[in-house]
Design brief:
alpha/beta; UDP N-Acetylglucosamine Acyltransferase, domain 1; six-stranded mixed β-sheet; four-stranded parallel β-sheet; globular
Length: 139
């Protein structure tokens, strides 16, 4: 999957590849080059309609490791990731398990999203925080 996500020239082909792997993707989405969705639990990634996910973004749904260690018994989680209608995720972001990126929210480039975003807001940073409310566009 990762080779295809890097080499496929058109977003529609990258969307197709992710759907074939089990990721739920709505209509009118743009998926940039080298976007990585969790390969262990791709069915737990839900991307709704008209979402933009920019290049080199990582989406994780689990923290499980096959190694036997103290931490592997404590931090063992498998959770859905939802990216709602109209959201925009900037380049080089990391989205962690259990996160919902709400409707029409924007995540700034390089952010690490460890908790839910608010709708119609700009979020950025590590950890990702609300920066400001986005104004609605007149119709």
């Amino acid at each position: 999957m990762s080779t295809g996500m890097f080499m496929l020239p058109f977003s529609c082909l990258r969307v197709w590849l992710l759907r074939c792997c089990g990721v739920k993707i709505g209509k009118g989405c743009y998926i940039g080059f080298n976007v990585f969705c969790d390969t262990n639990f791709p069915e737990l990634v839900e991307i709704q309609n008209h979402v933009t996910i920019s290049h080199n973004t990582l989406i994780f749904t689990h923290t499980i490791t096959p190694c036997k260690s103290y931490l592997s018994t404590i931090y063992r989680q498998i959770k859905k990731v939802k990216i709602r209608n109209g959201a925009l995720v900037g380049a080089n972001c990391t989205i962690l398990p259990g996160v919902t990126i709400r409707e029409n929210s924007m995540v700034g480039a390089g952010s690490v999203v460890s908790s839910d975003t608010q709708p119609h807001c700009l979020h950025a940073g590590n950890p990702c925080k609300k920066i400001k409310q986005l104004h609605s566009i007149p119709k």
